[in-house]
Automatic annotation (TrEMBL):
Keywords: Cell cycle, Cell division, Coiled coil, Cytoplasm, Developmental protein, Differentiation, Meiosis, Mitosis, Nucleus, Spermatogenesis. The keyword Cell cycle applies. One of its GO terms (cellular component) is perinuclear region of cytoplasm. It comes from Aphis glycines. This is Protein asunder. Pfam families: Mat89Bb.
């Protein structure tokens, strides 16, 4: 992403065009929640009041604006345009009009849509707002004008996004709306002039088709796709009662946000102050706050990630940790990122209580519940100058600490690394310049990478996570031999002897040498030691199945352990090896082939284009190979030396040997003399 794309991305300017026609005055399936505390017993409950399509749409737009303005006080501007018989700007790009109070004031002046009464003299349409939206997009913001005034020879890209909320009958109607909007953009680009206006370089058009819940709609969703070099189109069709959920989902994508749900918040009951209950509060923030969690252990990440109920996005659930007196400041923790937050449901009582608690100067520690049941502190919530932030707590060493030393003593953090084993591993895989000229069909770099991949298929980093690498008196030379590409019968027997030695040690109830622990009292029991050792040894052997002899070692382990069901793995692996060997051509062994070797064409899979009359030699002989090579050379280089006369005129006997008659011209001379 270029510098201009970072300074002025598509979300720098967002324009909403909301349909204000009488059709949007129809009721949706979403009703207004009302709580009657003083209602006579036995009375008839009041009829529910349903929201109109306009109310659902404008509430979703206002919530979109509130979240963006809470998280991005500067740099993310939004304009709202209504359209019925004419278009109306509810605000402009000025920072003084980028707030919810200003929007609410102008919406109260606008009022609800007109009643749906047929009137041919009045033409209501959302199309009137397209021209106004295009004019708003070419209008420069303060940041764009400031950047354009700088003489740095960098062109400012005017990228923007327009979201149209309307109702259409079918897909062709959506195409007509897109075409009219595209034409308006092209017209406005013609008269755009610096410095007050700027041509539109690219626009991301999002059409949200909404309709009453009681009807079905023929408009289908369309993912974002390119219409022209300056326009991308995305279509969503949703009932009016669910438009808020859809716009919230789009909001997370447009601004790269993420959701966090704070669970287990203790709170007193509103009706009964003597009792308390636990509540959950969902908050939005920048997605980078979750990078540490998502890049950590995959199993732990899956344990905290859950799909938001009734929505299309995921949220990460973090547990409320009761702050202690000496642990309520994030300054004592090493924080890597800091981002603003805003609650999703700002009107709910749990959200209001959490926000009030944080604004009063308190901090909240958030814990991540791991899959194994453990906990680790991951984030901290705290407010500064009336704004609430989420801090990401570092789980490892921080940049403020000194780099770790290899020779750290007791209490160090890196003493368990297998440093000596890693040194031996590097010496065994040392790369050196090749003295031979590299052929076209062989790549030494790829071979070295493949060798490293095989040898590191199972290679624990620390001594506390392995047993077989700490009991080399039992497991060597098996650990060194199994990583080789090929094993002979003697090496297979050596590997089996290691397995037999471990079986004998277990039968004698001998104590294995476990990794050194900081507390010797926590040493594993013998049964647990052998159980972990056998499981690790099986994993190691399964990671190094390269040939049939490697499989024999694993089969020996299964036979000794009594795992008869696991022998099916060996059978499938052996069948795979045999199939690959049958399909793989062998290397020509010209000087070592025995008389019983198969023909050359079966060895190499290469068919030489040679006439049978020109070669009267045994296909298994060295002479045959020499003749093939000579004829190939003559075909490639016709000017090469001619073939020996005796070899070219030789005949093959039954035993396969070549026979050439010497001094054939003597017979010709004798015949000539007799004729005379």
């Amino acid at each position: 992403m270029s510098l201009m794309d970072q300074l002025f991305p598509a979300n720098h300017k967002t324009t909403f065009v909301v349909d204000h026609t009488p059709y949007f005055g129809l009721a949706s399936n979403s009703h207004i929640k009302m709580d009657f505390t003083k209602r006579p017993s036995g009375g008839v409950p009041p009829a529910p009041i349903f929201k109109s399509m306009w109310t659902c749409s404008i509430e979703a737009v206002l919530e979109y604006c509130r979240i963006v303005w809470d998280l991005f006080p500067e740099g993310k501007l939004i304009r709202v345009i209504s359209s019925d018989m004419q278009s109306r700007n509810l605000n402009n790009w000025s920072s003084s009009q980028q707030n919810v109070n200003y929007m609410l004031h102008h919406l109260s002046c606008l009022g609800p849509p007109a009643k749906l009464v047929p009137n041919p003299n009045r033409d209501y349409s959302v199309v009137y707002g397209f021209r106004t939206a295009a004019e708003a997009m070419i209008e420069c913001t303060t940041a764009q004008m400031d950047q354009g005034a700088k003489k740095n020879n960098i062109e400012v890209q005017n990228k923007c996004r327009t979201i149209i909320i309307t109702s259409a009958r079918d897909n062709p109607s959506i195409d007509n709306l897109m075409s009219m909007f595209h034409n308006e953009m092209i017209k406005c680009n013609k008269y755009a002039s610096q410095p007050s206006s700027m041509s539109i370089h690219h626009c991301h058009l999002v059409i949200i088709n909404t309709y009453p819940d009681s009807i079905t709609c023929e408009v289908t969703d369309r993912p974002s796709h390119t219409i022209s070099p300056m326009l991308d189109l995305e279509v969503h069709s949703i009932p009016a009662s669910k438009i808020g959920i859809k716009i919230s989902n789009l909001l997370l994508k447009h601004y790269n946000l993420a959701s966090t749900t704070v669970t287990g918040i203790p709170m007193k009951e509103e009706q009964n102050a003597s009792s308390s209950a636990n509540y959950d509060v969902e908050i939005y923030h920048a997605a980078t706050a979750h990078t540490t969690i998502l890049n950590a252990n995959v199993a732990d990440a899956k344990a905290v990630v859950a799909k938001k109920e009734g929505a299309d996005y995921e949220t990460i659930k973090l547990k409320w940790c009761t702050p202690r007196a000496n642990n309520n400041l994030p300054d004592i923790h090493s924080c890597t990122t800091l981002h603003r937050i805003t609650p999703v449901d700002i009107n709910s009582r749990p959200s209001a209580c959490l926000i009030t608690f944080l604004l009063n100067g308190r901090s909240v520690l958030l814990e991540m519940i791991k899959q194994g049941g453990g906990k680790s502190m991951s984030h901290v919530l705290k407010s500064y100058n009336g704004e609430i932030y989420i801090h990401t707590v570092s789980s490892g060493r921080t940049v403020l600490e000194d780099p770790p030393a290899i020779s750290e003593g007791p209490g160090g953090k890196v003493t368990q690394y297998r440093i000596s084993d890693f040194g031996n591993f590097m010496r065994l895989n040392l790369l050196q310049p090749s003295k031979r000229k590299q052929t076209d069909d062989k790549n030494n770099i790829d071979d070295a990478k493949e060798k490293l991949k095989k040898q590191t298929a199972y290679w624990p980093l620390i001594t506390s996570s392995t047993i077989i690498f700490n009991i080399r008196q039992y497991t060597e030379p098996m650990l060194s031999l199994m990583v080789k590409d090929n094993l002979n019968d003697h090496e297979v027997m050596s590997c089996k002897q290691c397995i037999y030695a471990l079986i004998a040690a277990e039968s004698k109830n001998e104590h294995l040498l476990t990794p050194s622990l900081s507390n010797p009292r926590k040493m594993m029991k013998k049964d647990d030691q052998y159980k972990s050792m056998w499981a690790e040894l099986e994993t190691f052997l399964k990671s190094n199945l390269y040939t049939e002899n490697h499989c024999k070692v694993l089969q020996c382990l299964f036979e000794c352990r009594g795992k008869l069901d696991e022998e099916k793995i060996i059978e499938k692996t052996l069948m795979r090896f045999k199939k690959s060997l049958a399909e793989r051509p062998s290397v020509i062994r010209a000087t070592t082939d025995s008389p019983m070797s198969p023909p050359l064409t079966q060895q190499t899979g290469i068919k030489h284009n040679i006439a049978q009359k020109t070669i009267d030699a045994d296909p298994n002989s060295v002479m045959y190979l020499q003749i093939v090579q000579d004829q190939d050379n003559r075909r490639l280089n016709p000017s090469s030396r001619p073939q020996f006369a005796g070899r070219s005129k030789s005949i093959q006997k039954r035993n396969g040997n070549l026979f050439a008659k010497l001094y054939q011209h003597l017979d010709d001379d004798t015949d000539a003399k007799s004729v005379k």
